[in-house]
Amino acid sequence: MTATRTSEPAIRVRGIEKSFKDLHVLRGVDFDVKAGSIFALLGSNGAGKTTVVRILSTLLKADAGTATVSGFDVAAKPNDVRESISLTGQFAAVDEVLTGRENLVLVAKLRHLKDPGAIADELLDRFSLTEAGGRKAGTYSGGMRRRLDISMSLIGNPPIIFLDEPTTGLDPQARIDVWQTVKKLAEGGTTVLLTTQYLDEAEQLADRIAILHKGTIIQNGTLAELKQLLPAAKVEYVEKQPSLEDVFLALVGETGETDAAAETETAGKELR
Ligand SMILES: Nc1ncnc2c1ncn2[C@@H]1O[C@H](COP(=O)(O)OP(=O)(O)O)[C@@H](O)[C@H]1O
Ligand SMILES: [Mg+2]
Question: Which segments of the protein form a coiled coil according to its record (predicted)?
Answer without folding.
Answer: none
